[in-house]
Amino acid sequence: MTVKIRVDEKQLEVKKGQSVLQACLANDITIPNLCFMEGMSEPPASCRLCFVQVAGMDKPVTSCTVEVADGMVVHTDTPAVRRLQRSGLRLLLSVHEVDCKNCPANKQCALQDLARFLNVGLKTKRFEHYLKDVGMDDSHPTLTHFPNRCVLCGKCIHVCRTTHDRPLPALAGRGFDTVINFYGAWEPDNIPCNDCSACADICPVGALVLKSD
Ligand code: SF4
Ligand code: SF4
Ligand code: FES
């Protein structure tokens, strides 16, 4: 089953049940996003970047949480949409240790791509800059985690859950102090990581790095 929608100047026929974000990405329409992954049962909607304006709605909405509907008219590039996306990105960067020269994600980093697309400087001056009071976590035998590079997108948790049924990484702590922690549901001596790098591969920034790299 399909429905017809219009996105900017494009008329699209898209799958019923898709989110606006899925429909746009499937049709090569760029919408900034960090926390969405195909296959998630519920979008976490945590990155607050994927805003669009839907005709008839008074405010921009996150496109990963809104389902397409027949006749829907979507605008991806209004001043209000871009303002929210830029603020969302600047907020992420305000708690991010920007040190691209020394980061393995340099030149293949989602934050760099988003900054370029939204015309936002990586070293934002609009917000105070805060870093968590934690260094790198080297406790895992094959991975190093850098909490101050992590954007808490949850992709590592999702990919580990789908690969190994229960995720090794988990969110720990609260609010600003939330970090990715390991061994949530596993005994440290019995982890499946020696033959797997799914979480490091999916990480959109340089927050999870294989020790062998
Ligand atoms: S994660 Fe991206 S933005 Fe952050 S330091 Fe690494 S390359 Fe730069
Ligand atoms: S470690 Fe990487 S994949 Fe996992 S939540 Fe942080 S940024 Fe996302
Ligand atoms: S992709 Fe929609 S909030 Fe992150």
Task: Describe this protein with a few key phrases.
2 domains, single chain, alpha+beta, 5-stranded mixed β-sheet, two-stranded antiparallel ribbon, Ubiquitin-like (UB roll), 213 residues, 5 helices, binds iron/sulfur cluster, binds FE2/S2 (inorganic) cluster
What's the quick description here?
The protein has 213 residues and is an alpha+beta fold. The chain has helices at residues 20-26, 79-94, 110-118, 155-164, 198-202; strands at 2-7, 10-15, 51-54, 61-62, 72-75, 143-145, 170-172, 179-181, 208-210.
Write the layout of secondary structure elements.
Elements: E1 2-7, E2 10-15, H1 20-26, E3 51-54, E4 61-62, E5 72-75, H2 79-94, H3 110-118, E6 143-145, H4 155-164, E7 170-172, E8 179-181, H5 198-202, E9 208-210
Parallel strand pairs: 1-5
Antiparallel strand pairs: 1-2, 3-4, 3-5, 6-9, 7-8
Helix pairs in contact: 2-3
